[in-house]
Design brief:
The chain has about 375 residues and is of the alpha/beta class. The strands form three sheets. A nine-stranded mixed beta sheet has the order 16-15-14-13-7-12-11-8-17. Strands 3-2-1-4-5-6 form a six-stranded parallel beta sheet, sandwiched between helices. The protein has a two-stranded antiparallel sheet with strand order 9-10. Helix 1 packs across helix 9, helix 6 packs parallel to helix 8 and helix 8 packs across helix 10.
Amino acid sequence: MKELRVGMIGYGFMGRTHSNAYKRLTDFFPVQHKPVLKAVCARNAEKAKAFAENWGYERVETDWKKVVSSPDIDLIDIGSPNDTHFDIAIAAAKNGKMVVCEKPLAMDVKQAEKMVKAVESAKVPNMVWFNYRRVPSIALAKQLVDEGRVGKPFHYRATYLQDWTISPDVPQGGAGLWRLDAAVAGSGVTGDLLAHSIDTAMWLNGAITRVVAKTKTFVTKRKHAVSGKMQEVGIDDACMFLAEFANGSMGTFESTRYARGRKNFNTFELNGEDGSVYFDLEEPEYLQYFEYKQLQSGEKTESHVTGWRKIHTTNSEHPYMNRYWVPGTCIGYEHTFLNALADFVMGIESGKPTQPDFRNALQTQKVCDAVIKSAKTLRWVDTGVQL
């Protein structure tokens, strides 16, 4: 078995989810590469050391440049704040390293385009961690769409709701709250939450071509966690936008961190001529599916037994589930990263690039930028997406 020597940049929430995937990969998937946790890098050496000891990394670095140039590392995993993605990815690619990066890919399209050019010029395998594609229920929705069971699409609607920033006493910035600092995050719920919704939507339903958006910042000033000074808030607390897809269907997207009681409420529904699919992350083991068929005689199949099916996606024939437990038993959030890593490694071994790669994630970045632009002008904006 070949070694896949990993250099992790960042030790936060995503650093944990990714590290767990590296440690468990060969326990569940018959791949030819075994991850080896070589180095973790972060600015706080003490916290990075504790992280390394807990997860089994061989060493700690505080300078990411040492990690991306190290000869004993094959893959750079970027789990650090958004404003660091660009420099790390460019340097890693120049050093011939494989690169996997948290979403959103970059601060804006201009950065993302340069990152795509870097990894493609270097011909290094690359991936962005849009892990929700690897929820078995969402992967099953993709299968149903590809099988033509939804038919001609009419509507796509998505929501992504949280409530953790409602209090005006929550500060912005620093190691734990950088997502509220526009200089570090780039945007608020648009890049943090809707990027997931957009990626899923275009994976299932094709390119988003135009958007018109409205954003809102409810708390306009917050204390900065580092300086202690009150500063203007530059991120969007909430975003709603309408979308047009290349296939002619219409879309609605809503995201906020001000939905009291919602912690990570992520849903989508796709309605087509022949059926519909609906998913709710709060019940990730289920996919709801409505089937509507017309027989050759012209008679509809709708009858007294027609209705939505709530499919429990735990059978071995469901995506990824043949690697886990017996039917009826569920996997969790952490497995979505494990599934994504398995797809990436199998892509390396087969020579078929894993999606979403940097070029694919660039298309999501284009929609996010168009949403932010539209929110400033309150006009329709073309995305320029090319899938």
